[in-house]
Structure formats: C-alpha cells, structure tokens
Amino acid sequence: MNMKKISGIAAGVALAFGLTAPAQAAVELNAGNYKITFNAFDAGTVGYGNTPGLKCNGVVACDAAVPDATKAPNRIGSEDTWGIFSVQSITNLTTGTALFTAGPGNYLTGIFGGLTDALVGVSSDPFLGTTTTSIGSTGGFLNMYYNTVDYNASQGPAARLGLMGYNGITNTGGALALSANFGVSPIAGDNDYTYFSNYNNQTLSGNSQGFLDVVAGDLADEFNTNGQFDLNGNAHDLFLKATFGRTLAAQYGWTVDATGDVQGAVPEPGSLALLGLGFAGLAGLRRRKAAK
C-alpha cells in the first residue's frame, strides 16, 4: 500500500477493526532530506587475530580464516553479520521537523542480515598498542516493520526465526514498512562489496557503513529515489552508518550493540501516517482487499 493514501483511510481502518482512532495524526512527508535514527544489536564474526596483514580475500577463504567459536551467533550459512534494530525517530533534516518518535503503540522495528565477510585485514597502531580489523562484506538485507511493541533484545540471538525472522518483530502481523538490499559500493574497481566495517580488537568498538537499495514496503515509493551516490558514482536509495561497542550486548549474547542512522531524500510531498494501534489494521485491510 502506498503510504500517501494511508492518512485518508486511517479512520476507516480503526472503525473496521474495532480500534480506537490513533492519537498521533498523519504528518506530511514533504520533499527534503530525511534521517532515520536507530538502536541495534548485532551478532557478528570476530577473532581474525592481532597479527597485521591481509587475513582473507573471498567468502570461502574468510569463512576458513576464523574459528567456529567466534563466528556470528546463530548465523545462517556463511553469514557473518545480522541483528535487530528499533527506529527511535524520523526527522526531516531540510525543515527540522520531527515526524516520528518511538513510543507506546508506535514502533518501527526490524531485522538485517545476510552480510558475509569477503575481505578482511588487520592493522596495528604502534603508538596506542592496539590492532584494528577492517572488513568488506557482500550481500545483505534490511527489513523494517510497523509494530505496537518495541523489540526485545534480551531474547538474544536465539530468538531468530530463520534468515529474515525474529520473535516479536516479524511474527506479530505488523505490515512491512521498508525492505532494502545492501547495494554494491565498489572500492578500487572491485564490484563485490556492499558493507564496510572496522573495529578495535581489544574493545570491539568500531563503525560501519553501507548503501541500501529499496525493493518493497509501504515507504518504498517515497524512498526509492536513487538519490545517494557512492564514490564510484553508483546510485542508491539510502545510506546507513553506525557506531558500535559492547555496552549492553554481552549480557544478552549479542556481539555488539549499536546506534546509527539511515539517510535518504524524498523528492515529492506525500503523507506518512504513524497509526499506533492502527498498524494492526493495515495488515487486515490488505487481506480484505486481496480477497475482493
């Protein structure tokens, strides 16, 4: 469903499913640059060692370069990074308008994954006495859903439900808000890498980034713009960046916890209805329309 139409049917959805009309009114998704701020918990592969140099080049080689004990918890196949996230806010950077803030009944939560290490190197800092691991990954997806409750990271990686599922996020009946794949962002002419990260081997603190190409979801029309460009001139829809460490992750079995944002541009006005309890009705409305 195109989100531009949601504000016009919000009251009807609430009445049709016996729900109270949402307290938060629809807001205008005006043309401009947008920032989606999120918190996340990541399960990731670590343990490539502290000896400086190239550790591996290629998915098979990288999978063999690290012991099973330090590979991403509950990984699927040769996957090396996956996790869950919760959107904290959506802001129009052009106008300074805050469009969404997470709160009771209004949540945007999701899962990302499928990122596989394909190029890994370790470097050292002789002045600080530390080593850093740098990684180029391939593949990857990110799916975001409307939910009436926030994610529950205390369930840990064990609550994963297959490649693209997580308990309390994907099995609640919430509609798909946005689905995207990590887009290829070449370095030095290599067309394989979609995601780049580095972390301090002693603390696991670090940062990551990648471009996203929108493929589906209620917000697809607004954000599928090809308005973000990598250094090689390739067009993408969104740009994601994050910083991470081990503030809360270890007690729940995650590798790191993260904060970050996704930025994109909307070229034309539209309407974004953050419907609270009405989110549950959107899925039912879809089913009713499909049955006609």
In short:
The chain is mostly beta strands. The chain is built from four helices and 15 strands.
Structural summary, described in words:
The chain is mainly beta and 292 residues long. It has one domain. The protein is 12% helix and 43% strand. It is built from 4 helices and 15 strands. β11 and β12 form a beta hairpin. α1 crosses α4. The N terminus and C terminus are likely disordered.
Distance between the termini: 15 Å
**Uncertain regions spanning at least 5 consecutive residues:** 1-28, 270-292
**Helical amount among residues, as a percent range?**
10-25%
Tally of helical segments:
4
Rounded mean pLDDT is 82
N-to-C series of helices and strands: HEEEHEEEEEEEHEEEEEH
Largest sheet: 11 strands, antiparallel
Question: What is the count of β-strands?
Answer: 15
Please tell me how large the radius of gyration is.
Answer: 20 Å
The percent range for strand residues is 35-45%
Oligomer: single chain
Overall structural domain count: 1
Q: Structural class per helix/strand content?
A: mainly beta
- Outline, from the CA principal axes? globular
Secondary-structure blueprint:
Elements: H1 6-16, E1 27-29, E2 32-44, E3 53-57, H2 59-64, E4 81-92, E5 97-101, E6 107-125, E7 130-147, E8 176-183, E9 195-200, E10 206-216, H3 220-223, E11 228-229, E12 235-236, E13 238-245, E14 256-266, E15 270-272, H4 278-291
Antiparallel strand pairs: 1-15, 2-4, 2-14, 3-6, 4-5, 4-6, 6-7, 7-8, 7-9, 8-10, 9-10, 10-13, 11-12, 13-14
Helix pairs in contact: 1-4
Which key phrases capture this entry?
4 helices, disordered C terminus, 292 residues, globular, mainly beta, two-stranded antiparallel ribbon, disordered N terminus, eleven-stranded antiparallel β-sheet
